[in-house]
Each structure stands twice: as structure tokens, then as C-alpha cells.
Design brief:
This protein has a single domain (11-227), classed as Decaprenyl diphosphate synthase-like (Undecaprenyl pyrophosphate synthetase, 3-Layer(aba) Sandwich). Helix 1 (22-28) crosses helix 2, helix 2 (33-53) packs parallel to helix 3 (73-96) and helix 3 (73-96) runs parallel beside helix 4. It has helices at 22-28, 33-53, 73-96, 112-125, 141-154, 164-168, 216-227; strands at residues 14-18, 58-65, 100-104, 132-139, 181-184, 203-206. The chain is α/β, with parallel strands linked by helices. 38% of the residues are buried. It contains seven helices and six strands, in the order βααβαβαβααββα.
Length: 235
């Protein structure tokens, strides 16, 4: 099916992107790790916008996990610098195109400047209706569930009254629906604690390309396969 026909697809409401391979792509191309992450962002911008064009309403991207703090500190600084730049400068382009930007994660270890940039970007775009891009930053699926349970306990809810629906109402951005499709690049076939609660019935798509090489055509192929999948949800 041609790209031009993609709007006719039964598009997923919410897709997740595990952006794997930026560092390996940089090494293969004799570039620095920071350059690999910058190219990774540029490709995220392209692919996420394409997904919204094809009818997807929510695109969640795994940009930095709670475990990523263990990486080389210069790499961590470079990633945070890129994210801050995106939130302070690129946000204008998203806003112009009616795209809402949200950031989900614990945010415990983020510096004050980055937290402020997140707040300002979310505030600027909160009423946009052209689709939502979520950046999963300082994010871990298990931590999200733990934080949800803590919130429920703090409200004095009795154990017998805790339900799956109540947990869903207390996770990060509870109004965002479950994932329909998760795409992971670089050939790895695991979820790495990505949106654990929302991923329960998600379709999975694994691509051998490194994230910076993942193209709009690759996205379209994943969406086409999804459109031809009969989802039974255990029935």
C-alpha cells in the first residue's frame, strides 16, 4: 500500500516508540554520541508528525528511562541539553501546527530549569487539538505503577476498594488511552519497562533499523500490518 493511501488505514489511537539505536548509529557513521541523539530527535519529529498525519491521536516516545541515569554523565548532560532545547525552541513549531506536547515520568532528578521548560511547553500547547506527542522522560513503567499506588494509599482508599480502573486513574496522564501499537527499533525485542500498565494488550512491531534510520515508509508498513490485525483482547 502506498504512503498516499495511509489515511485510509484503520489507524491505532495510541502508538509507542522505543527509540533504540542512536548510539550505535552514531558509531557506525563515525559521529559522536551526542550527534546520534540529536539525529534521533530529528527523526522522532519526522516520524511522530507522520503518525499524526495518518490518523494516530497519541504518540508516546521513550526518550530517557529511570535506568538511563546510570549512563556516562556527559551523555546524560547532552541528552538533557537536547531536551531542554526542544522544549524551549522547537515547541513553537509544534504549537504552530496545533500539536500538544506532554512529558510523563517521575521528574524527580530533573533540574529546575528543565522542569520549568516542561511546564511552559505543556502550558503553551495544552489546548491544541491536532494530536498529542508524549515524551517519556525520567520514566519507568514499574515506577509509574508504584507512584499510582502511593497516590491511592495517600487518599486513604481501602485495599479491597483498589481496582484496575482506580490504578489507571492515578497513573501519569491518566486521560491518555492504552497503547495500541509499540514500535521498537535496532532489532531488540523487549519492552524495557516502557508504559507497562498501558502496554498490556498492545500489538508489537520490531524493526532491525537503528532509530535514526527508521523512515516514514517503515512507519507506514507497521501501521498497515496493524490495520490488518484482528485484536481479540482475550475474547
Amino acid at each position: 500500500m502506498a504512503i498516499a493511501d495511509s489515511k485510509a488505514l484503520d489507524a491505532p489511537n495510541h502508538i509507542g516508540l522505543i527509540l533504540d539505536g542512536n548510539r550505535r548509529w552514531a558509531k557506525q557513521n563515525s559521529l559522536t554520541t551526542a550527534q546520534g541523539h540529536r539525529q534521533g530527535y530529528q527523526n522522532l519529529k519526522t516520524v511522530a508528525r507522520a503518525a499524526l498525519k495518518y490518523g494516530v491521536r497519541y504518540v508516546s516516545a521513550f526518550v530517557f528511562s529511570t535506568e538511563n541515569w546510570q549512563r556516562d554523565q556527559q551523555e546524560v548532560k547532552d541528552i538533557m541539553s537536547i531536551l531542554k532545547w526542544v522544549l524551549k525552541h522547537e515547541i513553537k513549531s509544534f504549537h504552530k501546527d496545533n500539536i500538544r506536547l506532554r512529558v510523563v515520568g517521575s521528574k524527580v532528578k530533573l533540574g529546575a530549569a528543565l522542569v520549568t521548560a516542561i511546564h511552559d511547553a505543556e502550558k503553551l500547547t495544552e489546548n491544541n487539538t491536532g494530536g498529542t506527542i508524549l515524551l517519556c522522560l525520567d520514566y519507568g513503567g514499574h515506577q509509574e505503577i508504584v507512584d499510582s499506588i502511593k497516590s491511592i494509599v495517600a487518599k486513604g482508599v481501602k485495599p479491597e476498594d483498589i481496582t484496575a480502573e482506580l490504578v489507571s486513574a492515578n497513573i501519569y496522564a491518566p486521560d491518555v488511552p492504552p497503547l495500541d501499537l509499540i514500535i521498537r527499533t535496532s532489532g531488540e525485542q523487549r519492552l524495557s519497562d516502557f508504559m507497562t500498565w498501558r502496554a498490556g494488550y498492545s500489538e508489537l512491531s520490531f524493526n532491525k533499523k537503528m532509530w535514526p534510520d527508521f523512515s516514514e515508509q517503515d512507519l507506514q508498513k507497521a501501521l498497515s500490518k496493524y490495520a490488518n490485525t484482528h485484536r481479540r483482547f482475550g475474547k
